[in-house]
Amino acid sequence: MWKSNQTCVTEIVFLGFSDFQALQVLLFVVVFTFYMVALLGNSLIVIVTVTDRALCTPMYFFLRNLSFLEIGYTSVMIPKMLLNLLLETQTISCAGCGAQMCFFILFGITECCLLSVMAYDRYVAICHPLQYTLVMNQRVCIQMAAVSWSIGTLVAFGQTVSIFTLPFCGSNSISHFFCDILPVLRLATTDTRKNEAAVAIVTVVFIFIPFLLILLSYILILFTILRMPSAEGWRKAFSTCSSHLIVVSLFYGTVTFTYVRPKSVYSLGSDRLLSLLYTVVTPMFNPIVYSLRNKEVRSALRKSTVRQTSFLIRCG
């Protein structure tokens, strides 16, 4: 796989935020803080949804998958970025770049699929509450999660292999802080139109089709809510969906503006800033959104904190 690259380019240079030398330390502190908050928040969600019996429902099973996914998503890129902010030589090997890209695609595509599955779960819960436990049983939930992860894995492996079997014998610098698909593809010293077409197809099939399914689920949910006779029913239904809607808006808003905006408004600075939003900021907000807007999660977090505090007091 790497034979053609070993004779030309052996490492990739991240230009990243090198044009903001005066802000390197500040950027490091901000990104490190956001990363720690995202890591801690998502880890707590994983722990409480595993240990608390009250959270053994399909919604929290998928939330656990989402939080685990966010941990991997941020950890693939941010530690290397933080290290590069501290070092003068900001490089990554071709093998490391390929691995980073592969996991970036895997977690990104899996999240798109998982968010659509979570929307379907909310649709069944609100539109067909009497059939909910039958339709969303444990076996079905595991199968849905497994299919989401499998799609992400297959797409990631296929895209990574197709890109890194191209010849790279020219420039080895990219104006980014991680191995994103299009910046790396521009380094190839051959015709990349087929690869660009493949990326476009993947974007439509595995990013926008899941988004359309999410949109359809919420249109059907809205019709059901409008037929509810009581305001209390409206409130409960909107409360059930609000956290997921916020997460979907954050994720798809930043991703869409990054990859689908017209070239007339494209700039390297805005591209890197938007990439920071969906790689650091969005994963940080997800556990905050679910914990602040969900009574069960807040209660589980409080109980977990009390147990840990009691354990530390006894040990002390």
TrEMBL record:
Keywords, ordered alphabetically: Cell membrane, G-protein coupled receptor, Membrane, Olfaction, Receptor, Sensory transduction, Transducer, Transmembrane, Transmembrane helix
UniProt xrefs under Pfam families: 7tm_4 (PF13853)
Main localization category: membrane
Family under the similarity heading: Belongs to the G-protein coupled receptor 1 family.
Signal peptide positions on this chain: none
UniProt GO MF annotations: G protein-coupled receptor activity; olfactory receptor activity
Cellular component terms (Gene Ontology): plasma membrane
Cellular compartment(s): Cell membrane
Membrane topology of this protein: Multi-pass membrane protein
Transmembrane portions of the chain: 25-48, 60-78, 98-120, 140-158, 197-225, 237-260, 272-292
Keyword match Transmembrane: yes
Protein name: Olfactory receptor
Species per Swiss-Prot/TrEMBL record: Chrysemys picta bellii (Western painted turtle)
